[in-house]
Amino acid sequence: DAKTTQPNSMESNEEEPVHLPCNHSTISGTDYIHWYRQLPSQGPEYVIHGLTSNVNNRMASLAIAEDRKSSTLILHRATLRDAAVYYCIHTSMDSNYQLIWGAGTKLIIKP
Amino acid sequence: DTEVTQTPKHLVMGMTNKKSLKCEQHMGHRAMYWYKQKAKKPPELMFVYSYEKLSINESVPSRFSPECPNSSLLNLHLHALQPEDSALYLCASSQREQRTNEKLFFGSGTQLSVL
Fold first, then answer.
1. Distance between CA A51 and CA A68 in Å, rounded?
2. From the CB of residue B16, how many other CB atoms can be counted at a distance below 10 Å?
3. CB atoms within 10 A of CB A76
4. Maximum CA pair distance of chain A?
5. Consecutive H or E run containing B77
6. Do A30 and B100 touch (CB under 8 A)?
7. Rounded to 10 degrees, what is the CA torsion of A56, A57, A61, A65?
8. How far apart are alpha carbons A92 and B100 in whole angstroms?
9. In the predicted model, is pLDDT for residue A1 greater than 70?
10. What would the pLDDT profile of A42-81 be if each residue is shown by its tens digit?
11. Residue B8 and residue B52: Cα distance in Å, rounded?
């Protein structure tokens, strides 16, 4: 079965970089890696996605391992507004392209 | 306008009631989704509509009945629910049905309590 694993929670200081890891050892060659975050009392919000190469956007960077079995979401300077649950997700060709969600990492930002 | 709007935000219903959840988007997206999320868990896919036709039903009990009246609207009709159906119900949309790299846009959800 496809599976995505993430740490349950992480803490970081405000204004410092945050690296959120994810393992997706069952990913296949055409499956995309997505990250979403969910702030309290809101629906999930798209953060970033990628296939093989590292990706950058205004919110974050995504570093993908060469074997694609793991990835890291990087927030370059975390603020209090980045406190949320971050979900690592990958598509699964074997499951009719459904999104395989990790359990999520609760990111706590300390002022 | 990049919003997905869900109403109501909160709903309390008895096990014999019939109610409906509503979802609306005006981004021209042709795929819409219903997800169910229990506390401290990731969302679970329930239904997918693609071009107003039901594309995926993830073996959801028949007491949940989806409806897509047009490309901007998605409803979820509820009847004879059980207390274990209490959860946050999320609607999402994307330009086309998620296959690889589509971005999903989520609403804020309806928090449902079944008494």
1. 8
2. 8
3. 12
4. 43
5. strand B73-79
6. yes
7. -40
8. 8
9. no
10. 999 999 999 998 999 999 999 999 999 999 999 999 999 9
11. 22
Q: How many helices (H) and strands (E) does chain B have?
A: 0, 11
Task: Tell me which DSSP letter residue A5 carries.
Answer: B
- B39-47 contacts, C-beta under 8 A, 24 or more apart: B39/B87, B41/A103, B42/A87, B42/A101, B42/A102, B42/A103, B42/A104, B43/A44, B43/A101, B43/B90, B45/A98, B45/A99, B46/B76, B47/B76
In the predicted structure, residue B58 carries a pLDDT above the cut 90:
no
What CA–CA distance (Å, rounded) separates A103 from A24?
12
Residues of B in contact with A42 (CB under 8 A): 108-109
- Chain A: give the shortest CA distance to residue B15, in Å: 25
Confidence of residue A85 (pLDDT cuts 50, 70, 90): very high
Burial class of A40 by CB neighbour count within 10 A (0 to 12, 13 to 18, 19+) = exposed
pLDDT in tens, B15-49: 999 999 999 999 999 999 999 999 999 999 999 99
Could you say which of A46, A97, A103 has the minimum Cβ distance to residue B103? A46
Rounded CA-CA distance B15/A106 in Å is: 33
> Tokens 């990087």 correspond to what residue?
A74
Joined tokens for residue B90 = 């999320």
Phi-psi region of A8 (alpha: psi -120 to 50; beta: other; left: phi over 0): alpha
Tell me what the mean pLDDT of segment A13-25 comes to.
96
- CA-angle at A105, arms to A46 and A4, nearest 5°: 80
The C-alpha of A38 sits at a distance from chain B's nearest C-alpha, in angstroms, of: 10
